[in-house]
Amino acid sequence: MALLQISEPGMSTDPHEHRLAVGIDLGTTNSLVATVRNGVAETLPDSEGRHILPSVVHYTREGVDVGHEAKRRAALDPLNTIASVKRLMGRGVNDLKTLDGHVPYEFVEGEGGVPRIRTVAGDVTPVEVSAEILRALRARAEDSLGGELTGAVVTVPAYFDDAQRQATKDAATLAGLNVFRLLNEPTAAAIAYGLDKGQEGVIAVYDLGGGTFDISILRLSRGVFQVLSTGGDSALGGDDFDRAIAEWIMQEAGMGGESDHGRMRQLMMDACAAKEALTDSDEAELRIRMSGEKVWNGCMTCEQMNCLIDPLINKTLAACRRALRDAGVKADEVMEVIMVGGSTRVPRVRDRVAEFFGREPHVDIDPDRVVAVGAALQADVLAGNKPDDEMLLLDVIPLSLGIETMGGLVEHIIPRNTTIPVARAQEFTTFKDGQTAMSLHVVQGERDVVDHNRSLARFTLREIPPMVAGAARIQVTFQVDADGLLNVTAVEQTSGARAGVEVKPSYGLTDVEIETMLRDSMSHAREDMEARRLREQQVEADRVIEALDSALEADGDTLLDPAEREVIDQARGQLVAARQDGDHEAIRQAIRTVEKASEGFVARRMDSSIRKAMAGHRVEEFQ
Amino acid sequence: MNLDFSQNHFELMGLPVSFRLDRAALDSAYRELQGRLHPDRFAQTGDQERRLAVQGSAWINEAYSTLKDDTRRARYLLMLQGVEFDDERDTASDPEFLMEQMELREALEEAADTPDPLARIEMLSADIDARSSALTRAFETAFTSGRLDEAKALVIKMRFYDKLRDEALRTAERLEDDLV
Q1: Known catalytic residues of A?
Q2: What is the pLDDT of residue A197?
Q3: Which listed residue, A252, A259, A353, A616, has the most CB atoms within 10 A of its CB?
Q4: Alpha carbon distance A194, A215 (integer Å)
């Protein structure tokens, strides 16, 4: 911790120290890691010079392969090769039924409804699979940067709901990454693009990846990236193009509903190859291996493919229309359209998007790398490497958050496209005389009926004093942080009975599970846990002491009376002593004590900074 | 810990307490406040500061979204004047107005069956906007002349139009979804 460094926000404690920070694009099909070196953001290659890491994990009895090697195994060993795991993130067993036939894995239901994928190496959760990919990227970054990472910005589709975001964050934590921030992919692209071109005005980012589609409308103005609205479909992407083509091939070739996973996977690859071939030619030859030794030869024209994918493109354009409406912006007010994601290479997609916005979209940036590059730029700022940087992101939540009320209806508490962070409260009451408990069901989505929305969490408020129906006043507060993650609390106003939940238990892992896994993975790496923890706490202690000192120097005399100062000084002394002793738990507690002792001081500094900020305004406006 | 922000939203943004809004000044004040207090400015600090920053930033967002919306700003101004609202009980009682509301609502419902439903909805939305701006102007006059009861009645009517506008959006969205 550090006390608010208001005069110089984000300044690192040592201005000469460059903190290693990365941006990670954790994609459905491919993933990348990027960093800012010597002022330039660049993606990092592996030892063989490849920048892209296929998001594929192959489990064997001996161990785990990630990336190119795993991808080669996909056709040979489909059941143990997990691809497109991003589609499964934050999904419950019931959600997966809708993906039936789309993924070849065997699922088993784990504790708390978390689906697990059966492999020869044991059952794994989507979070664990993603963590393998992140671990590989982390290792790549630490190898090429030559040091431990301070933190990372991990991108997620803007349209990811709370459960999907939480699952992503869990995966990063499991991979040993300190997550500075989850960043929406289109916003990342806008940063990479906007900072590069110095553009001002309204821009649209059309992001069609392998498995997700996002549209975001942003306003750029003097370094502030304000997301006006966002929309999309977290289960629509280039993979669906491939699937539509594969189904066409099956029909043309007269293939039945053969359920051979290996052949299905091969067919999807053939479909993908045909799609890519049609990027710059009018026809694609097809040569499909059938059952036995038979081979089917055929041909697909551009026109035929366009007919197959048009319905999918229409879906994306409907989302664009909605996003424009939510932003209160007309299509012709959009100054630039940025295309992101590998699937925007399909000429038909570009044509239809150009037609929709009435302008040619920007395709001159590498659609595969732009997200990782934007994330790296943001990570660099958050790491404190650019103290003078004025860049600021104001993002929104993609889907409305609400609570179930009587009759299975939803009362929306925070509407979609509300700027985050946000806190909103609403009062509810009891409906029975003498009711002493109330169960709360938190949902996310746009529909009025609970069943059509995503269920995020259920919790119960107890110890409501018995009253007549309608007399209790239960205030439910939703708080969404800058990552788009939700926290809910409920308080009965007359008695103060309180219940709360950090919304994640449905599909993510519990903190205990994550900690256990972390410990396991660390002991794997033969890391000395104790020493590591001690080091971490010592670094933290140094940071706290340094920040406290500078805060005291700046405002200690004006904001504290001698008695308050005495309490803080004493806590500081204990922390200095604990840091010398070398017991990480003792240091942690001493940090807590300092935090507790300086709570009031911190609040006053925050207050006085707001006043200063306002004072600045008054001067500007009234003189 | 709760931050005790004693300023009202207008003061927070350095704006005069009035219905007439200098939108450019609001936007720039908002950006400057967020620039200082957004949690991203505290990424390298401890949990305690970050939590405070989340609260501070959420507060600024709340002030901004309240002020930039005509109906919410109007209601907020009245509440600053001590006027109380009770969402369950407060409702418009002017029969002519209620009749007009019903007609507009029906027109929206029937729009789906017209030859070009989206164009029809756009037309209705323009109509709703025009009527709502007239109310907004009436509110400003009533409020600045200190006729608070009248102003409150107007705010309640403004909310009817906001709901209609939402309804028009939802109807358009449903129609578009059906087309896909």
Answers
A1: 25, 86, 185, 207
A2: 66
A3: A353
A4: 16
pLDDT of residue A622: 30
Q: How many domains is chain B partitioned into structurally?
A: 2
> pLDDT (tens digit, 9 = 90+) per residue, A333-374?
999 999 998 899 999 999 999 999 999 998 777 888 999 999
| B34 near A CB under 8 A | yes
> What is the C-alpha separation between A514 and A516, in angstroms, rounded?
5
pLDDT (0 to 100) of residue A172: 94
Whether residue B59 has pLDDT greater than 50: yes
Question: Are B113 and B40 contained in the same domain?
Answer: no
Does A614 sit within 8 Å of B7, measured CB to CB? yes
Give the span between the Cα atoms of A327 and A216, in whole angstroms: 9
Q: Does B103 fall in a domain?
A: yes
Q: Are residues B109 and B162 in the same domain?
A: yes
Give mean pLDDT, residues A180-207: 86
- pLDDT tens, position by position, A69-87: 999 887 778 889 998 899 8
Closest-CA residue to A382 (of A134, A11, A44): A11
> Where would I find the beta strands (DSSP E) of A327-414?
336-340, 392-394, 401-405, 409-414
Domain shared by B106 and B167, yes or no: yes
Does A526 contact B at CB distance below 8 Å? no
Average pLDDT over residues A415-441: 87
Mean pLDDT of A221-232: 88
How does pLDDT run across A312-324, given as a tens digit for each residue? Answer: 999 999 999 989 9
Domain range for B58 is 9-68
| Domain segments of chain A as ranges | 21-184+369-387, 238-307, 401-511, 528-612
Protein fold of A528-612: Substrate Binding Domain Of Dnak; Chain:A; Domain 2 (1.20.1270)
Domain A401-511 is in which class?
mainly beta
**In the predicted structure, residue A518 carries a pLDDT above the cut 60:** no
Q: Which of A226, A382, A602 sits opposite B49 (nearest CB)?
A: A602
Range A21-184+369-387: architecture per CATH = 2-Layer Sandwich (3.30)
- Among A5, A382, A419, the residue with its CB nearest the CB of B61 is A419
Instruction: Provide the shortest C-alpha distance from residue A546 to chain B (in Å).
Output: 11
Q: Provide the number of CB pairs (under 8 Å) joining chain A to chain B.
A: 149
Residues 156-195 of A with CB under 8 A from B: 180-181
How far is it, in rounded angstroms, from Cα A393 to Cα A483? 11
0.80 exceeded by the pTM?
no
- A352 contacts in chain B (CB < 8 Å): none
Residue B51: CATH number of its domain: 1.10.287.110
ipTM value of the model? 0.87
Residue A326 distance to chain B (closest CA, Å):
9
Within 10 angstroms of residue A253's Cβ, the number of other Cβ atoms is 16
Q: Which two tokens stand for residue A10?
A: 């984000």
Cα dihedral angle (A112, A114, A117, A122), rounded to 10 degrees?
A: -40
Q: Could you confirm whether domain A238-307 is CATH 3.90.640.10?
A: yes
